[in-house]
Amino acid sequence: MAGMLYLIITTQRTVTKLWNPYDILGIDESATEQQIKRHYKKLGLKFHPDKIRPDPAKNETIESLNDKWVDLSKAYQALTDEEIRNNWIQYGHPDGKQGFSIGIALPKFIVSDGNGKYVVLVYALLLGVLLPYLVGSWWYGTQKLTKDGVLVESANSLFREYTEITDEGDLITALSTGKEFSSILKGDKAESGLSKIESRISDKGQVTPYAGGLSEKDKDKLEHMESGVRRKVLALLWAYLGRVELDDPALTSAKYLVAPIAQSLCRTATAIALAYGNTVPLLASYAISQRFVQAIPPKASPLFQLPYFTPAVVKAVEGDSKNHMSVQQFMELPDARRRKLAIGKDLLNEQQYQTVVDVATQLPHFQVAKAFFKVTGEKHIIPGSLVSFVVKGRFVPPGSTNIPAINDLDLEDVDPAEDDLDAMLGRKKTIKDASGKVVTEEHKPVSPPITFAPYYARDQAPKWHVFLSDSKQERMAVPPFTFTTFDKPIYTPDGKPTYNVQTLKAQFAAPPQAGHYTFVMHLVCDSYVGFDTKQDITLSVEDASKAAQMDAEDDISEPEEDSLAGQMSALKGGAVTKRKPLAKDDSDDESGTEEDESDTSATNTDTEDES
């Protein structure tokens, strides 16, 4: 490396010099033809081969002197001979267009006699063996993976395990079939320590029947599973979810490594559930994603997301309640009440409690303020139209105080102007300012902060999924739309919530028949437990002819204030419009006959109306 740097520094760059007859003759470019001829005669007396003799001290030879005289002659002719001068002007050389060649530096042994067959052999191996092998390995490697980056064999196993009533425990068991786990449990690691893991997760738990958080059904599945990689993976998954201490460095490392793999497999389970359109397994896949990120077993308290919250602390806070307390509910309690429940012997100390409060008030809890349907540029939704489902809300961390009221203008979804291409494509956002004026502003996506997940061995960016379902049939009506960025800042630079109203928008085709359709909106965060929103929402689809009639009625202008209808509308408290001034005629000598005809026409119309 040092030698290469030395060569780079010391080697001088070779610069190609352009052929210039003036430089060769040593005269100024402003010289006239007479001056050039006189100067050439002087050079002939000095450099003509018959006049000069080689000087050994200067390493001169007959050939070098002849070449120099040839250059002088070409330079002279280029400036005096018309044909040679044209060659120089057009091609840059008196002899006309010159050949161009590029040299490639090759090692001597490649071009040496007798080595040609070896060079051909090397090229044959590279092009005929190595290149096809690399391309084939890449191709078949990509064929083994799904678009989610999961082995096709693992996806097939999850497909075989799928049922319409798959719950969270069933899904955890199904995830253990993934072939990706074999990479971290090779050889003797496949079964070593299995009995110890099963013993620890089967111990009695403080807030769950077993320490690992598994149910009787899940425990029975584990015990009846054949020994091997899958059984150990399933035991490690329950040990991770239950935060069970294994007191073994190798087992502890494996416990934290299986969670990210299971999380990636969970995305494939979500895709399978989406293909079938069943709500129960879809929600189970989202719930398990949350549980793996936060290391919380199914049906366990969301309070485990808070730091220092052990089973003893959770039990002290929730007491004997059959329903778990969410982080939001815990933070809504008065501070004195929270301290009384969480601080004490074998519970939290003052410093730990303050850390809990600091973390809770930074969690991105999305509160829905308004959800509605609309069609851009239209007043009514008709069958088959492109419907926009708009969700307005803001991030309100648990325990937030002094929350500002929502401005009603922020809850409106303003249609972009038809000629504003940037707004139509989403590069700009159309809003109303404080005065109610429609304005556009640059749209810069804002990403939420990385998920607070101290047990998860990867950085996790939270995502929010919004979809509509039919609660009666437990089927998905509108597939999920995933949101990873938002249109306004969520936190200030110093970490305080902004309470900005965010807009989530999804588009789908309206039902083919008119009517009122009641859906259940699910807004699910894949990284936090208990931060989901579920509410009923109705889509009203009007018949196309009825919608057109309603639009026509809306377009009828209000009666003028000086008309009979306007006066009656004013007496009833209705709206009227002021009469527009008549336009001044261009000619003052308009015939009275036309005025009479106009008056008569108006009278006849009124009469006909009265009759």
What does this structure look like?
The chain has helices at residues 2-10, 21-25, 33-47, 62-80, 82-91, 108-111, 116-143, 152-161, 168-175, 194-201, 216-223, 229-241, 249-276, 279-294, 311-318, 327-332, 335-342, 350-360, 421-424, 544-555, 564-571, 592-610, and strands at 366-374, 386-395, 428-432, 438-442, 464-470, 475-483, 501-509, 515-525, 533-541. With 611 residues, the chain is α+β, with helices and mostly antiparallel strands. It has a four-stranded antiparallel β-sheet, with helices on one face. A hairpin with a 4-residue loop joins strand 5 (464-470) and strand 6 (475-483). Mean pLDDT is 82; it is low at 580-611.
Output the structural class: alpha+beta
Helical residues, percent: 40-55%
How many strands in all? 9
Quote the distance from N terminus to C terminus: 109 Å
Give the strand content: 5-15%
Average pLDDT, to the nearest integer?
82
Radius of gyration: 42 Å
Structural shape: elongated
